[in-house]
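Lab notebook, bench 4. The sequencing result for the construct came back, and we need a structural model before the next group meeting so we can plan mutations. Quick request posted to the team channel:

Model the 3D structure of this chain.
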Amino acid sequence: MKEVNDFLRQLGLSSDEVEVYLYLLKNGKQSVLNLSRGVRISRTTIYRICEALREKGLVEKLKVNEAVKYRINNISSLEKLVSEEEKKVKLLGYGFKSIESILKSQSLTNTQKIKVTHYSGSEEVKQLIWNTLNARNGTIGLGYYSISEIIGTDFMVRWWKEMIKRGLTDTQLFNPVPSDRVRTQTKNENFQKEIDENHRYRIIERDILEISYDSFIYNDVFSIVQWLKDECYGLEIQNKIVADQERELFNFFWKMAKPDKLSLKMRQS
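Done. Here's the predicted structure in token form:
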């Protein structure tokens, strides 16, 4: 069992979670009381451990004669967890490229030093997004969902009016989501058409790149916007090396992505 123990620990399970999982593997479905006696851990802790394992998809909760019991899920649950860990490693590798550039940039001359600005809350994030209007040609970046969900459609319509007025385009990569989640929506059909003509995007599968934030790359700037429920924050990095590195990564993934059917239809009409 040592190999199984080591494998489960490498997947991120705690020693107690591994012990409970292996006990269930050996003895079949068990009540919290029996598990507590079997592995000599308090019932309160056992319940917490079982729920943690259930959230990971490794065990399932059953009701047997009004009693709650837990049992091991099938082997595919472990395969799914391994797949999720592989995706995390891929994202870490992607993120490391950015961090590597930032660290290297610390040794540059004063004229090339990095400037990092933090933004917290929707009002400050609006300023980060408005700053993208300083782009010389347009912006490229990743799209998590429609950013108007965080800061409101009215602001995004004003931003798009300025983008179009200045002759700028916005090019984005999205994971597969409904088309209405990637486009700023307006009731003005003519203006909606102008937005769609200036908003170019492609769809990239999650197993290639899983997107968890919005980003903007323009000039020598790389910005990130991320949110959790109703809270959002942003990070704006002004440095040529960082921006160029992110631009190269974006172009790499852009070639692997596919045009969305709606995007193709709009551009052909």
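The chain is about 50% helix and 20% strand.
Will bring this to the meeting.
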